[in-house]
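Exercise 7b. Backbone tokens:
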């Protein structure tokens, strides 16, 4: 079935990213307007806007399954793309779309459910000969059960939320005396984030690399991988810099890990775009972590080195088309690096930095792509994530990519809020990073960045209340900010000379 209209159940840069591919495919796009961002840039990019400004219940707009489905039905919209975050990996949402004969641009509800439950995913990996770390067989029942598993496999261990993702509900436990405190922190965080307190345990590998493989699969049983992304530069288990290919990979390692990723996808009859994540130890042994059943924030680096538009392929797969290429046709050319520019105070443990973007400017070059959802006058609020923009750099070699990145990052300028720009510059100047000699401990070892203790929830609630009050007063006293003319995002596709 040919998709003629598309509702983007998301906001910010990913909404704009999806809209621009849909426009090129001559698909009419609909965006959701909220009271939290009434003047957001992504609303201007869409062909039509559906107004969710008036609250109808206590459910956040982008998590309200019934409201989103009803809006699509009311406007006669053919399909919904969830982007990442929010409802992107919610099997109930995919099922409701299916029930209402609305095309869900993503995998099947069953695949989302199985891969979303980390214990089920691990069992599937084990049954399909994909390497796994030692750990609990399924969820641990309680603290005492966790203690017994930890004693059996030995410390250090890592506690993980069974329904988790994005680094939430995870705690490393170095010694038995820390287990009870970390168990409570992890289970409480899992409950708040996923409404599920369940945890499982894995042996913790010190200083591994974090590697992920991009998967594309159609509804006809064809599955390919598009190579790896190196995601080891991260804080609090959340990525900050990604690149493709990994500087330590050999063709043989890529072949073996890619084959394992495809086996995982095939185990749930997967279709659409997906990402299989692994840990890689110093001996080049790899271990399955999880599969993310959605498009990733860092998908542009894969697009840059393969020339494949992942959003377009997701749409075509949802329409029932076969993949237009096989594994032997996939070629990784050059190197791409992505820097996440977040509104965060690095010196305060990467805490959010709220405020108004007074001025934002970035370089324009054939080697540079910028995906963003903000412009002059945009407000960074506490309601959504802190991502301002993604700076993606291409080079024919890693050395050239890093050289272009050094030039570009110096010309990227943001006024009005603290950002991770200075952090990105510091990483680029680090000799071990430039040599490709790094792992997930890079921040604490190379840049000596340490994190604050767990934030006090009452203090955060009070802070957000004061923020809302101050914003309301400011809106009453000031005239509306003129955001000025919007600035085009650098096209996702490099010019033909670079392919």
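Sequence design result:
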């Amino acid at each position: 079935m040919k998709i003629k209209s598309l509702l983007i159940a998301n906001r910010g840069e990913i909404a704009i990213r999806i809209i621009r591919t849909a426009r090129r495919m001559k698909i009419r796009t609909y965006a959701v307007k909220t009271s939290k961002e009434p003047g957001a840039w992504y609303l201007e990019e869409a062909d039509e806007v559906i107004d969710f400004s008036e609250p109808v219940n206590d459910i956040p707009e982008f998590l309200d399954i019934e409201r989103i489905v009803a809006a699509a039905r009311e406007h006669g919209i053919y399909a919904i793309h969830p982007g990442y975050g929010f409802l992107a990996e919610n099997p109930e949402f995919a099922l409701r779309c299916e029930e209402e004969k609305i095309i869900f641009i993503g995998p099947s509800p069953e695949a989302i459910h199985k891969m979303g439950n980390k214990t089920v995913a691990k069992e599937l990996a084990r049954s399909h000969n994909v390497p796994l770390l030692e750990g609990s067989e399924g969820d641990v029942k309680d603290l005492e059960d966790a203690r017994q598993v930890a004693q059996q496999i030995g410390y250090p261990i890592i506690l993980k939320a069974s329904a988790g993702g994005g680094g939430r509900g995870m705690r490393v436990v170095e010694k038995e005396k820390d287990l009870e405190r970390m168990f409570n922190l992890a289970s409480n965080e899992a409950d708040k984030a996923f409404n599920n307190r369940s945890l499982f345990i894995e042996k913790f590998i010190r200083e591994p690399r974090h590697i992920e493989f991009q998967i594309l699969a159609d509804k006809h049983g064809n599955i390919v991988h598009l190579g790896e992304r190196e995601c080891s530069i991260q804080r609090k288990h959340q990525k900050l810099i990604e690149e493709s290919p990994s500087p330590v990979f050999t063709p043989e390692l890529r072949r073996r890990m890619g084959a394992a990723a495809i086996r995982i996808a095939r185990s749930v009859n997967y279709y659409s775009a997906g990402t299989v994540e692994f840990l890689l130890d110093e001996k080049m042994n790899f271990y399955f972590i999880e599969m993310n059943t959605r498009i990733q924030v860092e998908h542009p680096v894969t697009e840059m080195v393969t020339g494949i538009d992942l959003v377009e392929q997701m749409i075509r797969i949802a329409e029932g088309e076969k993949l237009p290429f096989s594994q032997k046709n996939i070629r990784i050319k050059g190197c791409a690096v992505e820097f996440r520019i977040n509104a965060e105070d690095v010196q305060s443990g990467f805490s959010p930095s709220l405020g108004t973007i007074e001025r934002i400017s970035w370089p324009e070059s054939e080697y540079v792509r910028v995906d963003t959802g903000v412009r002059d006058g945009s407000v960074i609020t506490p309601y959504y994530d802190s991502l301002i923009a993604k700076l993606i750099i291409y080079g024919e070699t890693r050395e050239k990519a890093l050289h272009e990145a050094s030039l570009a990052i110096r010309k990227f300028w943001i006024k009005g809020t603290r950002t991770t720009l200075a952090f990105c510059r510091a990483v680029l100047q680090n000799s071990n990073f430039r040599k490709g000699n790094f792992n997930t401990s890079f921040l604490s070892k190379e840049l000596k960045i340490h994190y604050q203790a767990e934030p006090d929830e009452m203090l955060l609630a009070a802070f957000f209340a004061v923020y809302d009050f101050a914003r309301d007063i400011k809106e009453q006293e000031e005239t509306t900010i003129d955001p000025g003319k919007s600035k085009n995002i650098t096209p996702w596709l490099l010019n033909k000379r670079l392919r």
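Instructor comment: Confidence is low (pLDDT under 50) at residues 450-461, 475-499. The CA atoms of residues 349 and 453 lie 9 Å apart.
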